[in-house]
Amino acid sequence: MKLDVDTLRYLVREDFKVLTAVEMGMTNHEIVPVEVVDRIAHLKHGGTFKVLKNLLKHKLVHHDSSKYDGYRLTYLGYDFLAIKALVNRGVFSSVGRQIGVGKESDIFEVATEDGNIMAMKLHRLGRVSFRAVKSKRDYLRHRRSYNWLYLSRLAALKEYAFMKALGVHGFPVPIAVDRNRHCVIMSLVQGYPLVQVKQLQNPDEIFDRIMSLVVRLAEHGLIHCDFNEFNIMIDDDEKITMIDFPQMVSVSHRNAQMYFDRDVECILKFFSKRFVVHSTGIA
Ligand code: ADP
Ligand code: MG
C-alpha cells in the first residue's frame, strides 16, 4: 500500500479532530453515524461535514450509506493518526521509502531531524481475512465489527513488548524504540532476510547459532511460532537478527511442542535445501 505522507502536511487541527472522532466512534460502531462523529468532534458551525468530505477525498475514511450515513477509518487514516502521534512525541520527523511488505504488515524507513534512520512497522491484521469474513454473513450478523483496528493494535503491542523484553535478555533483536496504535518503531536492521542469501561463509556456524537461538528462547519460556528464513536477518558480517514477534507463545501453550518442532523444522529444511551443513550442534 502506498503511504503518501504529503497529505499529512496539509491536514489541519480540525482534520485530526474529526479523524480521531471517527476512531473513537469505531470502538462501538462498525460504521460510525455522521451525527456521532459530529458530536464527538464538536466543531463549530457544522464544520464536521466539510472536514469529512476532505478526509474522504484523501482516502483517510471510507463512506458507507448502505444502512445509514456513516464513516469508518481506512488503514491510511489509522496510519496517519499513529504517525502524527509519534511525530508529535518527537520520535521521528519524516517517513521514507517502503522497505518491506509482510503478510500482515508494511515496513517503512523513518528518520529524525538529525538523520537517524529507523524502521516503522504498521500492522495490518485482518487485511487477508477481511474478505473471508465478509463472505460469511451469518458470522457477521452476530458481530459488531471486524475489529481490525483492535487486532492490529494488539499485534503491535505484543510485538513491542516482546522486542523490548528479548532485547533486555540479550537476544539479537531490533531495539524497540516506541509504539502507537498499530505502529512499532524499531532500529533499522542492516542486512537481508536469510531467504535472499545464496551463500554463507560459515553455514555450519550460522545454522548452529540459529538453532541455539530457538533453544535459548524456549529456555526463557517462549516459542517464536514463525521462525523461518523470512524472519531472520543476516548482515555482511554474518551477524543474525531475529524479527517479527506478534505471534510468539509461551512454552505452556497447549500446542507448544508442535510450534517448537515446526520452528526447528523450518530452519532444518531451509538449510538442508540451500546450504551444505554438517551440524555438530544441538539438533
Ligand atoms: P510480517 O509480520 O508482515 O512478516 P516482518 O516483521 O517480518 O513483517 O517484516 C517484513 C519484512 O520487512 C522483513 O522480511 C524485512 O525484510 C523487513 N524488516 C522488518 N523489520 C525490519 C527492520 N527492523 N529493519 C530492516 N528491515 C526490516
Ligand atoms: Mg515476517
Q: Can you give a write-up of this model?
A:
This is non-specific serine/threonine protein kinase. Its EC number is 2.7.11.1. The chain has 283 residues and is α+β, with helices and mostly antiparallel strands. Helices cover 42% and strands 19% of the residues. The protein is built from ten helices and 13 strands. It has helices at 6-10, 13-25, 34-41, 47-57, 75-88, 129-135, 137-141, 148-168, 203-219, 256-274; strands spanning 32-33, 61-64, 70-73, 94-101, 105-111, 117-123, 176-180, 183-187, 192-193, 222-223, 232-234, 240-242, 249-250. A five-stranded antiparallel β-sheet has the order 4-5-6-8-7, sandwiched between helices. It has a three-stranded antiparallel β-sheet with strand order 1-3-2. Strands 9-11-12 form a three-stranded antiparallel β-sheet, with no helix packed on it. A hairpin with a 2-residue loop joins strand 7 and strand 8. Helix 2 packs across helix 4 (47-57). The chain starts with 5 loop residues before the first helix and ends in a 9-residue tail after the last helix. It binds adenosine-5'-diphosphate and magnesium ion. Adenosine-5'-diphosphate binds at residues 99-100, 102-105, 107, 119, 121, 174, 186, 188-189, 193, 230-231, 243-244.
